[in-house]
Design brief:
The chain is mostly beta strands. Strand 2 and strand 3 form a beta hairpin. The protein is elongated, with a radius of gyration of 25 Å. The chain binds manganese (II) ion (MN). The site of manganese (II) ion has 6 residues, from strand 2.
């Protein structure tokens, strides 16, 4: 937000003739301002009066998703790129790569840097507010952030070269927040001849593919099969869901399916086999072009540090739909309340293997099979 009271003033390191500031030389050298809409960085603004300084955290969807921390200091913005964002717990330090000082005009900048340019990708302000500088020494900065999302004491310290770590010194803002547990397994269904009847049941098409739990933590996505196998490497295009979920920590239950050129799930048995056998990113990326896959989300087990499994299916479904998952290789297929027989007909018409019916008041039971989920399997 421009502030008219923030006059341009000459500060010592600004060249008197050109008005160019040396501390921003690297910023300018990396960019072609004929191509990028970013601020030109040819001037320095004074810090505002008083002790409090502004900060922002920008979410930057570049070659790799990351979050850029900017701290107003001596007329420029100290900058660090955090590949996993700000740590919420003092138990987990996160990498913060020191990047070149940015001009003050960058603090609230949002926009798209063209592909091929330095930092190409979309940038939005994820948080902003003020901070206090508690301590500042070579390779060490202690701050107190007071933002809309992030509040608390943090220490940044250099480990090697441009690599720093960011450590949360305060307890978590949300005292009940927990790390995503390891070893989660999907819930199973009992078999039936026909879908159950009544309004208390919701029915989904049963997809042919690989059942998987997909976890997003700070944009980093892991995918685990029902047997505990690592399904991340074979499906790089599915892992890009981390760009949409970004900082929203989630564990999703779903099915990875092979899709056709129009993105429709393929129903023939074995359609996903070629993808499942791939173990390297490079190989998977090659095959993804000819044999695309997608993740169909059917349930939500975890959200922002808290399990959702004790909620009723209907509440979990609402939270899942609020995530508005809709990407090139992920989405949330529709469900149908009541009239399972009709859904079974649709499954048969589409060559799908059946219907999964879920009692709408039932909790999610990880790794368990209960009669709250009922599976009607079609035989061809
Ligand atoms: Mn960046």
């Amino acid at each position: 937000m421009p502030d008219p009271s923030r006059r341009l003033v000459a500060v010592r390191s600004v060249d008197a003739v050109t008005g160019v500031d040396d501390r921003l030389a690297e910023y300018r050298r990396r960019r072609d301002f004929a191509r990028t809409p970013e601020p030109s960085g040819d001037r320095r603004e004074p810090d505002p009066p008083g002790d409090r300084r502004r900060f922002s955290i920008q979410q930057h969807d570049a070659t790799r998703l990351h979050w850029d921390l900017r701290l107003e200091h001596e007329g420029v913005l100290w900058s660090w790129a955090m590949p996993r964002g700000v740590p919420w717990s003092p138990d987990e330090n996160r990498l913060a790569v020191r990047t070149e000082d940015h001009p003050m005009q960058y603090l609230d900048w949002q926009g798209s840097i063209p592909a091929g340019e330095y930092g190409g990708g979309h940038m939005v302000v994820w948080d902003h507010g003020t901070y206090d500088l508690v301590e500042h020494a070579d390779g060490k900065v202690k701050i107190v952030l007071d933002g809309g999302r992030v509040q608390g004491r943090f220490a940044l310290f250099r480990t090697r070269g441009r690599d720093w770590m960011i450590h949360r010194m305060d307890p978590p803002q949300d005292p009940d927040r927990r790390f995503v547990p390891d070893g989660l397994r999907p819930m199973g269904a009992v078999a039936a001849e026909q879908p159950p009847e009544g309004d208390g049941w919701a029915h989904e098409l049963r997809w042919r593919g690989a059942r998987a739990l997909l976890t997003n933590e700070g944009g980093r996505v892991t995918i685990v099969g029902a047997d505990g196998s690592d399904l991340g490497p074979p499906f790089p295009e599915v892992r890009r869901i981390g760009r949409q979920l970004a900082a929203v920590e989630t564990v999703l239950d779903g099915v990875i399916v092979a899709v056709d050129g129009a993105g429709r799930p393929r129903s023939e048995p074995g359609a996903l086999d070629r993808r499942l056998g791939l173990s390297s990113d490079a190989g998977a990326r090659r095959v993804a072009a000819s044999d695309p896959a997608a993740f169909l989300a059917v349930d939500l087990l975890w959200l922002e540090g808290h399990p959702t499994w004790d909620l009723a299916w209907a509440e979990r479904r609402t939270l899942l739909e609020e995530l508005a998952l809709d990407g090139p290789a992920w989405r949330t297929p529709s469900v149908h309340r009541g009239d399972g027989a009709l859904v079974l007909v649709a499954a048969r018409d589409q060559g799908l293997p059946g219907v999964v019916s879920k009692w709408i008041d039932s909790p999610y039971r990880c790794g368990a099979t209960t009669d709250a989920w009922v599976e009607t399997v079609l035989t061809t």
